[in-house]
Structure formats: C-alpha cells, structure tokens
Amino acid sequence: MKKNAFTLIELIAVIVILGFILVIIMPTLTDTLNRTKDKLNNTQKNQILSAARNWGMENLNDNTNKTDRKITVKDLQDSGFLDDKEVKDLKNKTNLQDNTTICIKYKDNQYVYYYEGDTIEGDKKCTK
C-alpha cells in the first residue's frame, strides 16, 4: 500500500508549529511597524515646519509687526508651500489639515517655528 497524502496528525502538527512561529514574530513585527509610523510622522512634522519656515521667509520681513503668529497646514497648502494632499497622522489616522497649527514666535531677533501645544525654552504654549 502506497502512502501519497499527509495524515491528519501531520497537518495539525504543521499548523501548530506555524502558530508558534506567528506568536513569536507578531510582537516584533508590530513594534517595527509602530516605529516606522513614528519615523514617518516625525518626517512629516519636519516637512510641515520647513514649509512654515519657507512661508515665513516670504511673508514675514523686517517691516512686519513682530507679534506672534499662527498658520495652519491648510493655509500652507493653499499658499503653495505644502503639497495639496491629505495629511494624516499615521498612528491615530486623524486628519492634520483641519487641526494642526504652526506657531511663529519672534524671539531674540528671529522667528521660531513650533507646533501648537509644544513649548519652547520654557515659554508658554501656543494655543488656539
């Protein structure tokens, strides 16, 4: 008698082994994906700040009142300093165009750009 197929026990053993491998790999894979999302969010944040600096170089000059200002991601897109595509936080999937503000503070004879809610050198947070 020839044996051409796997037995049920052999198939179950393979499935159990694959399950163990999956249990070992999943936490590492999830951690890697989360770190990648964090890096992409930081890159996106730096691009938005860079666009705000470019906007400031063109729109803020020595004759401008040196008061604190705010600009939104949508404003940067509308003025052409940032690509007109949807900007999302990759971790929580929120839309950054609607609720992200860049604060521009005049300090020590220069403009400082930072995200709303961030603090700079112990200064009060920029709020809406």
3D structure, described in words:
This protein is of the alpha+beta class and about 130 residues long. About 50% of the residues lie in helices and about 15% in strands. It is built from three helices and three strands, in the order H-E-H-H-E-E. It has a three-stranded antiparallel β-sheet with strand order 1-2-3. The mean pLDDT is about 80.
Tell me the major beta sheet.
3 strands, antiparallel
Low-confidence stretches: none
Q: Strands of the largest sheet, in order across it?
A: 1-2-3
Helix % is 40-55%
Mean pLDDT: 82
E-strand count: 3
Could you give the distance between the termini? 81 Å
Overall radius of gyration = 25 Å
Structural class: alpha+beta
Q: How are the SSEs placed, and which strands pair?
A:
Layout: H1 8-59, E1 69-72, H2 73-78, H3 96-99, E2 101-107, E3 110-115
Antiparallel strand pairs: 1-2, 2-3
Question: What are the salient characteristics of this protein?
Answer:
3 strands; 128 residues; alpha+beta
Short description:
With 128 residues, this protein is α+β, with helices and mostly antiparallel strands. The protein has helices at residues 8-59, 73-78, 96-99, and strands at residues 69-72, 101-107, 110-115. The model has no long low-confidence stretch (mean pLDDT 82).
